[in-house]
């Protein structure tokens, strides 16, 4: 499905089209009237500089120009001289300028091929050229990033210039959605590699100081654009993506897909599809749930720099780095929190909590550390504690799904419902907290359907205290019960050791006394017994685990007990489940640390969001 927007002027009509499924991309689609027909593979990018001379404008083409990472728009300007990049130098003339909203790269800058969105402007006369150069060099003040709204204004201004000074023709090359997605991935990886090469450090404290220095050197404008790249790059590249290794190829692919989506700042797009029959997919479903919840919450720290949680995290990290690197603060180090070498959101949430708890200590040394008082003013400790309170339920949720708690799939639905309620804004929330909750809820609702899968709803049915499925929607409840009832009929009755069936009372009327069956259908009888079974009948409640309860009651519900163990198999991945089934033999040889990393993207991964 494609949305359309139209901008019309006396010079030209521009139609904006963009796909619904790419929230971060809005592309300009214009008929290619003025651009040559390009093949799929483009020539290496070159640089063209247009300079104003006495006799007009001179065009200088520089083949294979080196790409500057700071040059986000694809154009660098110096003293009103316009530098732009063209796809094919042979097709360039003094009346052609090609501007870029974004660019992509492969491994090396000089190997760049084309752009995600390119805008070709053909200029009719010198007055138009002068107006265009003045607008771009003075008003835009590049290099800068144009978001979708800014890019539309930019295109509208070009049209206005065309209407004022003569005909302005605009042409564009737009790749398909799959190509755009791949190029975004390449762009993110390349940007991170450039940043990592720029910042040389061996520990997180040095990294924070290096980030601040680098931001000052480059300038606040560009730093604001790339801060969500910088804040994550060190731990992502050095301690997670390159360190995860799994003997099972499928698991490794899943994990890397999750991390790739996380790196791109698109955790809401994460999908992990089960690859076995339902009785062996509990592990995959838990992994999927953890990844989705982790993605919803981690996007808090993947957002722009002016967004409150990211600012708090970075400011606290910089403050701590100053304190820990100060020789005069050595005596205070034992009281200060440490930032672990991880990028999971839980470490960040714990780090923020530790900073809040150590606030008095930090204030105590603020006068002894150069530059610290100014940084302290950037952090509102009250806001810090409010953000922590918003993130805490996500941390608790993933704590339940951590490997140490032997999670079973029936946890997922109650967790989802609780988090959904928690994210509803209240009258006590200030504007910043309401904004955070709104963004979290927005991401959360996009993955809610995946979290509330049919398998998760069926698993909830096997929790005796929640078998009514009241916390699910009517449609989900009906589907879950129908699915379980159908699967019960597929179980071989000869293998079931069950209680005697209840007799059906006969009617007194003779015409109704001829029955084909004198007993209830055994499957229906077992299903109804479980529905109306009172836990208090045995006086035990649910003091034991759900799996233990089914072990003790399998004689009462033999078919349901088999399904319960299938749906509630403990997803420790490397170890056999409580039902005795190993998810995959090869996963047994993973050590406990690797197992934890694979299952929840880190041994203590919790959630925290955008």
TrEMBL record:
It comes from the Eukaryota. GO terms for cellular component: nucleus. It holds the Pfam family Dimer_Tnp_hAT. Residues 529-602 form the HAT C-terminal dimerisation domain. One of its GO terms (biological process) is regulation of transcription by RNA polymerase II. One of its GO terms (molecular function) is protein dimerization activity. This is HAT C-terminal dimerisation domain-containing protein. The lineage of its organism: Eukaryota, Metazoa, Ecdysozoa, Arthropoda, Crustacea.
């Amino acid at each position: 499905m494609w949305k359309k927007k139209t901008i019309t002027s006396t010079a030209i009509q521009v139609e904006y089209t963009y796909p619904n499924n790419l929230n971060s991309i809005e592309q300009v689609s214009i008929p290619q009237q003025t651009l040559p027909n390009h093949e799929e593979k483009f020539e290496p990018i070159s640089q063209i500089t247009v300079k104003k001379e006495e006799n007009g404008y001179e065009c200088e083409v520089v083949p294979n120009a080196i790409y500057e990472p700071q040059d986000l728009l694809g154009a660098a300007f110096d003293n009103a001289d316009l530098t732009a990049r063209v796809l094919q130098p042979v097709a360039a003339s003094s009346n052609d300028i090609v501007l870029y909203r974004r660019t992509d790269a492969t491994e090396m800058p000089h190997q760049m091929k084309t752009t995600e969105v390119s805008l070709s402007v053909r200029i009719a006369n010198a007055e138009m050229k002068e107006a265009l150069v003045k607008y771009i060099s003075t008003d835009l003040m590049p290099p800068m990033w144009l978001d979708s709204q800014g890019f539309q204004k930019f295109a509208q201004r070009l049209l206005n210039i065309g209407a004022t000074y003569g005909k302005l023709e605009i042409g564009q090359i737009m790749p398909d959605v799959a190509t755009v997605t791949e190029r975004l991935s390449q762009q993110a990886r390349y940007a991170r590699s450039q940043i990592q090469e720029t910042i040389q450090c061996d520990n997180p404290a040095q990294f924070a100081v290096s980030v601040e220095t680098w931001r000052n050197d480059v300038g606040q404008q560009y730093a604001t654009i790339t801060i969500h790249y910088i804040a994550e790059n060190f731990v992502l590249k050095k301690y997670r993506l390159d360190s995860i290794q799994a003997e099972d190829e499928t698991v490794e692919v899943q994990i890397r897909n999750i991390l790739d989506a996380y790196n791109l700042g698109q955790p809401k797009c994460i999908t992990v599809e089960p690859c076995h029959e339902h009785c062996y997919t509990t592990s995959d479903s838990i992994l999927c749930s953890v990844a989705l919840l982790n993605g919803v919450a981690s996007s808090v720290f993947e957002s722009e720099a002016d967004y409150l949680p990211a600012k708090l995290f970075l400011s606290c990290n910089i403050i701590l780095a100053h304190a820990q690197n100060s020789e005069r603060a050595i005596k205070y180090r034992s009281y200060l929190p440490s930032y672990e070498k991880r990028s999971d959101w839980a470490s960040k949430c714990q780090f923020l909590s530790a900073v809040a708890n150590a606030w008095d200590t930090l204030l105590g040394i603020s006068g002894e550390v150069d530059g610290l008082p100014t940084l302290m003013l950037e952090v509102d400790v009250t806001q810090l504690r409010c953000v922590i309170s918003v993130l805490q339920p996500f941390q608790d949720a993933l704590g339940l799904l951590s490997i140490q708690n032997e999670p079973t799939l029936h946890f997922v639905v109650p967790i989802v419902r609780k988090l959904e309620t928690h994210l509803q804004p209240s009258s006590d929330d200030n504007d910043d907290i309401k904004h955070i909750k709104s963004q979290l809820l927005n991401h959360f609702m996009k993955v809610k359907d995946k979290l509330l899968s049919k398998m998760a709803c069926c698993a909830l049915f096997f929790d005796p205290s929640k078998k009514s499925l009241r916390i699910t929607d009517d449609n989900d409840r009906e589907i879950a019960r129908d699915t379980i009832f159908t699967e019960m009929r597929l179980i071989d009755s000869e293998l079931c050791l069950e209680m005697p069936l209840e007799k059906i009372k006969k009617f007194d009327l003779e015409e109704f006394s001829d029955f084909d069956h004198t007993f209830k259908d055994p499957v229906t009888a077992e299903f109804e017994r479980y529905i109306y079974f009172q836990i208090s009948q045995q006086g035990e409640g649910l003091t034991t685990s759900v799996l233990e309860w089914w072990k003790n009651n399998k004689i009462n519900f033999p078919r349901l007990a088999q399904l319960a163990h299938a749906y509630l198999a403990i997803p420790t991945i490397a170890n056999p489940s409580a039902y005795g089934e190993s998810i995959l033999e090869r996963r047994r040889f993973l050590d406990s640390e690797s197992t934890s990393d694979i299952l929840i993207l880190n041994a203590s991964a919790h959630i925290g969001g955008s």
